[in-house]
Specification:
168 residues, mainly alpha, Ferritin, two-stranded parallel sheet, Ferritin_DPS_dom, Ferritin-like
Length: 168
Amino acid sequence: MSNNIEFTAPGMNHEAAKKTIEILEHRLTALIDLQLTLKHVHWNVVGPNFIGVHEMLDPQVEAVRGMTDTLAERIATLGGVPKGTPKAIVDTRTWDDYDLGKALVKDHLVALDKVYTGVNGDHREALGKLSEIDPVSEDMITGQLADLEQFQWFVRAHLESSTGELKT
């Protein structure tokens, strides 16, 4: 995180900007990791329903890539320095790397559901913090969360039984 903010959005104090940037940096790391994980799954999923899952993931990759750009630009707007390098991602993430390589559709979707659970839960937690310091960033994260939750629903629809039970 940039410790010395030279400027921030008009009307926002530097302390609120620093806290907001820190929250957004964590979300940026998570979404860069998510877009790479989604593409990894896209390349390595095999078995029944391969093509449906393969084709479902590319629009998610593109949407998440757009979210990362929005986050990075918000960080810069607030006077921070967005970091999207591989080293920055590895150094700041708090979760283990996605560990499946070539695997069946169900295995990847079960693992991907867990990834979405983590990302979406952390987005919700960020909302609580942002609501008190930056409603603009809060609104941005809210919009992203709506899309991310829908993407998780797409994944879960492949795992759900007709009675609503997730087959994990």
